[in-house]
């Protein structure tokens, strides 16, 4: 569905700001708490945190993150899911979200209603109150940016830092073909898996995959190290070749490092017991620069998604 | 300064994402904490809150909130100040901010550097760590949305709800002419005043003025009431007429209700002692619908800034 309306009457501009905000609150339903704990005052008031907090921000922008083939309900859900994936990558769970919308006045009310209803359904599923927002106008623009607050689910928050030379590299799910298959908007953020991994002492560092493994793995790689990925082991989506699995991006899977001295068989058994339906694959290990095995992928041959190009 | 670069070489697109993020961290300097407490991981980790929290989000978008005549440093500062004004309106103080940037690849590096340096200078002044962000590309777009976290400065958070019939209406500063005078980007958010007012029991409700008093006052008006504003009392910026003071918007001043039975002279003396340089004006009171004095402004004759028109 194209976000722009053909008739002025059916546009958000014709509705006007006040009625639009009232409609948004209706579309959000019970995921939108009453002011001052939600939309409707200068700020929203949130309960004190129970411990350290997590915060992340990610957008969806037309036509970069969705096009006319993505149902607007899925666009709203994708916006929240992308941010939930960032929380999952640190072993967190969500507490509240605020939404900044930037719209052309010609955007269709039907499109926007479906967007918000999709966001609300996803917010109910993951119990994320939408506590605030802003609507601004910009010609040609259909975009939204969501800031998600969260908290750790256990005593530890997993970061991208901490992997060491020799550590094994694991990924969840399958890679590549995300845009073609619709995975980029229908994926399940790995919140349960992330929380479980943050409680496993043998897991040293973790992140989520958004720009493709070939690019993202650099952020997890220890100093003086390089990722030795074995091409045969890479879990690929049906129809995705090696290049697609490494570079297409929007996988929203977890990649993490497991200590070299850990009992891998024991760890993998525990995973299968906890997540019998989530594929886990050991795809390689971190080695010293210059010590890349001949069989490993030379990452210099692959580039993930480059923003601002 | 126009945000678009004439030469491809001088554009953010030519710089590329990785170098741009490194440059942004340099421009932000010490307002940008190290990961995982700032930019560079999937989420930023924040210290536990000391009590109830406040959250708000507001954007600056070209050419709606700034044009080529506004120095880019001032645009960056305005983005933070707008959000600080929302915190001030509830008696809060800031704790952390995240920034979502949406840029055309042709935006000039010089423009963006000045934008970030202006934001960083303002963040240092108000001690707001910039803990996270996102950069996305959209054709023709130069915009940023900032989510600001804060906390109450005392036992009470002032909301827009709570004014009663008979309560006096006060405004800080002067109104109107904000765009013409440059006030819209150079204003000082009323954080100190807001915190002081939240501790005064006679103050019942408060908000900040962004779309013009004529429109904004409705949100403060009690049920079955109407604001009786006396035109002669309205504090106007030099050169601003009554209509400008009521409708132009972007005043970023506080408007609040003081209990009818309070000792107004005592309250005003205390204010002058606390804020000898911040003008305070009683501009009217809330009366029952139908009981508007003949001298009062009929707000139906005035409309504030309408978004999405």
TrEMBL record, chains A, B:
Top-rank EC class of the record's enzyme: transferase
UniProt binding sites for ATP: 116, 133-134, 160, 210
Positions of the PurM-like N-terminal domain: 40-150
A Pfam family per the record: AIRS
Listed GO biological process terms: thiamine biosynthetic process; thiamine diphosphate biosynthetic process
Signal peptide: none
Binding site for Mg(2+) 2: 58, 86
Binding site for Mg(2+) 3: 42, 86, 208
Residue sites binding Mg(2+) 4 per the record: 42, 56, 86
Biological pathway: Cofactor biosynthesis; thiamine diphosphate biosynthesis; thiamine diphosphate from thiamine phosphate: step 1/1
Family in the record: Belongs to the thiamine-monophosphate kinase family.
PANTHER family assigned to the protein according to its UniProt record, in alphabetical order: THIAMINE-MONOPHOSPHATE KINASE
Protein task: Catalyzes the ATP-dependent phosphorylation of thiamine-monophosphate (TMP) to form thiamine-pyrophosphate (TPP), the active form of vitamin B1.
This protein's name: Thiamine-monophosphate kinase
Source species taxonomy: Bacteria, Pseudomonadati, Verrucomicrobiota, Opitutia, Opitutales
């Amino acid at each position: 569905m194209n976000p722009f309306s053909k008739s002025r009457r059916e546009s958000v501009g014709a509705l006007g700001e006040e009625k639009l905000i009232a409609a948004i609150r209706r579309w959000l339903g019970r995921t939108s708490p009453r002011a001052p704990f939600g939309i409707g005052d200068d700020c929203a008031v949130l309960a004190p945190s129970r411990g350290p907090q997590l915060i992340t921000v990610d957008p969806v922008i037309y036509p970069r993150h969705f096009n006319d083939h993505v149902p607007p309900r899925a666009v709203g859900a994708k916006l929240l899911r992308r941010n939930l994936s960032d929380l999952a990558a640190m072993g967190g769970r969500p507490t509240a979200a605020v939404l900044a919308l930037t719209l052309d006045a010609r955007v269709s009310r039907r499109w926007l209603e479906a967007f918000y209803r999709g966001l609300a359904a996803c917010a109910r599923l993951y119990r994320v109150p939408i506590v605030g927002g802003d609507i601004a106008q910009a010609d040609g623009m259909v975009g939204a940016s969501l800031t998600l607050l969260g908290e750790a689910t256990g005593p530890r928050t997993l970061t991208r830092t901490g992997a060491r030379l020799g550590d094994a590299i694991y990924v969840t799910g399958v890679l590549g073909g995300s845009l073609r298959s619709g995975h980029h908007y229908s994926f399940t953020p790995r919140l349960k898996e992330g929380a479980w991994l943050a409680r496993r002492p043998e897991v040293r560092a973790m992140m989520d995959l958004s720009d493709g493994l070939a690019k993202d793995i650099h952020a997890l790689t220890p100093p003086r190290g390089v990722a030795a990925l074995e091409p045969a082991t890479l879990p690929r989506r049906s129809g995705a070749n090696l290049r697609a699995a490494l570079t297409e991006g929007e996988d929203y899977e977890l990649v993490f490092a497991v200590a070299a001295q850990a009992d891998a068989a024991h760890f993998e058994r525990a995973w299968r017991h906890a997540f019998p339906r989530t594929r886990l694959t050991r795809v390689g290990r971190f080695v010293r620069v210059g010590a890349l095995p001949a069989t490993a992928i030379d990452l210099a041959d692959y580039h993930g998604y480059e923003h601002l190009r």
